[in-house]
C-alpha cells in the first residue's frame, strides 16, 4: 500500500521503469480489448471524484492509476483552505472529462497515508501515475496554477505511460465500470520479450536486459518501452562497478577530457542530478572539437532519451546544446 516515489522528471529508478512499462502495456491492451468488444467501460461524471481510505487505497488509487492519473486531495474538515481548494479540484475533475480521477483523503481518518506521503500540512495535492507517487502542490493555489499543473500531469501520463484517461458518459449510472482485470486482456506481441528484460533488470543482469530490449527493437524499432528500457539499462551497465569518488576526482582534474566528463555525467544522472549531467556535457561540447565533441554530443542525446523528451530540463538542455554547437 505504500506509495513509491517518482518524479515526472524521469530520474532513473528501476522500480519506476518496470511499473511504467507494465502500466502502459496494460492500459493499451485494455483499450484494445474494450474496442474489440464494442466499447463500454464508460463512467459517470459522478465517478470522477471518489472518497478513499487506507483500506481501499491500493484498489482505488494504485490500481486505478494504471488506467488514469489519480490526483489525491488531502484535506480535513477543520481546514479552511481545504474548503476553498476542494471544490475547485472537484469541478476541474468533471471539466477534464476523465483525463484524471480525483481521490479525496481525510487526513484525520487516514493518518497512516498522511505519514507515508510525508505530508507536513494541508491542503496537499499529490498524483499517482502508474503506481508512482509525485507531489503536485501544497497550500493555497490559484486556479490558473492548478490548471497548468494538471495539464502537465495529463500530458506526461499520456506521452510517457500511454494513459489517456477514462471514457465518461453523462448517461452512465454512478458506480459503474471498474478497471479491466489483467487476466481478461490479451497479451501483446512483445510482452514475453519485455517481461524477460524486466526480469533481467530485477536480477541485476544488465547485459541480459540490454539484449532483451534489443531483441524487441530488432522486430519493432519504434517500440517506446523497449527504447526507454534499453537507454536506461545501457546507462546502468556503464556505471556498474565504477568508483564514484575516483570518477568525479578525475573529471575535476581534467575538465577538458571528454571521456572523463562523459563518465561523470552518467554518474550524475544515475544519482538524480539531471541538470548537472546535462550541463557537464554541454560544457564539454563547447570546449572540445572533432571526435571528442561528437562523443559528448551523442552521449547527451542518449541521456535525453533516458529522462524523456517532454521533461522541461531536456527542452532547456536541447536549446543550450544548439547554442554550444552553433
UniProtKB/TrEMBL annotation:
Transmembrane regions: none
Xref: PROSITE patterns: THIOREDOXIN_1, THIOREDOXIN_2
Extract the InterPro entries matched here: Thioredoxin-like_sf, Thioredoxin_CS, Thioredoxin_domain, TPR-like_helical_dom_sf
Q: Which Gene3D superfamilies match?
A: Glutaredoxin, Tetratricopeptide repeat domain
Q: In Gene Ontology terms, what is a biological process of this protein?
A: response to stress
Q: Which residues form the Thioredoxin domain?
A: 21-155
What's this protein's name? Tetratricopeptide repeat protein
Question: Which species is this UniProt entry from?
Answer: Streptomyces sp. SID14436
Amino acid at each position: 500500500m505504500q506509495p513509491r516515489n517518482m518524479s515526472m522528471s524521469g530520474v532513473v529508478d528501476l522500480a519506476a521503469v518496470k511499473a511504467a512499462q507494465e502500466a502502459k502495456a496494460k492500459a493499451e491492451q485494455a483499450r484494445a480489448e474494450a474496442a474489440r468488444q464494442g466499447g463500454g467501460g464508460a463512467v459517470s461524471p459522478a465517478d470522477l471524484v471518489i472518497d478513499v481510505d487506507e483500506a481501499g487505497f491500493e484498489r482505488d488509487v494504485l490500481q486505478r492509476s494504471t488506467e488514469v492519473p489519480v490526483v489525491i486531495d488531502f484535506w480535513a474538515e477543520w481546514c479552511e483552505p481545504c474548503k476553498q481548494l476542494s471544490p475547485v479540484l472537484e469541478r476541474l475533475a468533471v471539466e477534464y472529462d476523465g483525463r484524471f480521477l480525483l481521490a479525496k483523503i481525510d487526513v484525520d481518518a487516514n493518518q497512516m497515508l498522511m505519514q507515508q506521503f510525508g505530508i507536513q500540512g494541508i491542503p496537499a495535492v499529490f498524483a499517482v501515475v502508474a503506481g508512482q507517487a509525485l507531489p503536485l502542490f501544497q497550500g493555497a493555489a490559484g486556479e490558473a496554477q492548478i490548471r497548468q499543473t494538471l495539464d502537465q500531469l495529463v500530458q506526461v501520463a499520456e506521452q510517457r505511460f500511454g494513459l489517456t484517461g477514462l471514457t465518461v458518459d453523462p448517461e452512465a449510472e454512478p458506480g459503474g465500470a471498474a478497471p479491466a482485470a489483467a487476466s481478461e486482456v490479451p497479451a501483446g506481441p512483445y510482452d514475453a520479450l519485455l517481461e524477460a528484460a524486466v526480469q533481467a533488470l530485477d536480477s541485476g543482469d544488465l547485459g541480459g536486459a540490454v539484449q532483451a530490449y534489443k531483441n524487441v527493437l530488432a522486430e519493432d524499432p519504434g517500440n517506446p518501452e523497449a527504447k526507454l528500457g534499453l537507454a536506461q539499462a545501457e546507462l546502468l551497465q556503464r556505471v556498474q562497478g565504477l568508483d564514484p569518488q575516483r570518477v568525479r576526482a578525475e573529471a575535476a582534474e581534467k575538465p577538458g577530457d571528454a571521456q572523463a566528463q562523459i563518465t561523470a555525467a552518467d554518474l550524475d544522472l544515475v544519482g538524480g542530478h539531471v541538470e548537472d549531467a546535462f550541463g557537464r556535457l554541454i560544457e564539454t561540447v563547447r570546449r572540445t572539437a572533432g571526435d571528442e565533441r561528437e562523443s559528448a554530443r551523442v552521449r547527451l542525446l542518449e541521456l535525453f532519451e533516458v529522462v524523456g523528451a517532454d521533461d522541461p530540463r531536456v527542452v532547456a538542455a536541447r536549446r543550450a546544446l544548439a547554442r554550444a554547437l552553433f
